[in-house]
């Protein structure tokens, strides 16, 4: 069911949502959170599609905030309500014109699901300098950005690291979940002393910088960052006194795990779509101190002109 409201108010949007649920025979119960998407017209389609897929695992009300012509002289609010299309949740696209676009929080607050967590997501490259201080970020327990989408990827990641507050996270860190799991499993087995590391990835890859920083922190060794043609992170090499532990993924799909004295092993290591990344972030709303530490190390090393891994003990 789709409902278009032009020149509307939050009260009319609420009434339309209630009426739609009654017509479809679906009460408001079962919603586990409110997801606020802050985007523009060009990126809203992919973001809403990813949110709709993630809502199958996390039924939620999706409020998509789209600013249109914020410098216009008159304020106007248009809304598009989508219910029952592909999942159990509700999707509301809020297009704000004129000065109203500068006060999006005043429109969003009345539409939040009562007594449920709030997640704010900036899917594009235009993220606030401090997500926790942004009016829509202040409403949320979890604030999700994606520095990979920014024009200055590494600069944006360093900026977000400096402004970190509990609840902040970034998709460049979420993309590393499977890499970190594979490396942790490989190191759970008996191995010789690790003396250095190397992360290989495409140029200006914030995920690679975070992975190098995380390995350096956890292993207490210098981790070098080298460049490949991609896609994404293509390899990790951990140098030990008895030989190298290597994970090599040249195609973004399947990785080869090589360990001294053992046969090579093929491991599925797909580059995950946006919907999977979002669903993972919606599973946990607690502070991610590991991301905080890795991002802080990267920002410190970037400011000092060192590789992201830095030197041991730095």
Average per-residue pLDDT, rounded, comes to: 91
Order of helices and strands: EHEHEEEHEEHEHHEHEEEEEHH
Poorly predicted parts: 307-314
Strand order of the largest sheet: 1-4-5-3-2-6-7-8
Number of helices: 9
The first-to-last residue Cα distance is: 56 Å
Radius of gyration: 22 Å
How many discrete structural domains? Answer: 2
Largest sheet: 8 strands, mixed
- Net shape: elongated
Structural class: alpha/beta
Beta fraction of the residues?
A: 25-35%
Strand runs, count: 14
Helical percentage: 25-40%
Structure overview:
The chain is elongated and about 70 Å long. With 314 residues, it is of the alpha/beta class. α4 packs across α9 and α7 (206-219) crosses α9. The chain has helices at 10-24, 44-54, 104-108, 153-162, 171-174, 177-188, 206-219, 274-283, 289-304; strands spanning 2-5, 33-39, 60-68, 76-83, 90-97, 118-121, 142-145, 168-170, 194-201, 223-227, 233-240, 243-248, 254-258, 265-268. It has nine helices and 14 strands. Mean pLDDT is 91; it is low at 307-314. It has two domains: 2-170; 171-314, no CATH class. β13 and β14 form a beta hairpin. The longest helix is centred in the C-terminal third of the chain and has 16 residues, at 289-304. It starts with a strand and ends in a 10-residue tail after the last helix. 39% of the residues are buried. The chain has an eight-stranded mixed beta sheet, with helices on both faces. Residues 166-294 form the Glucose-6-phosphate dehydrogenase assembly protein OpcA C-terminal domain. This is Oxidoreductase.
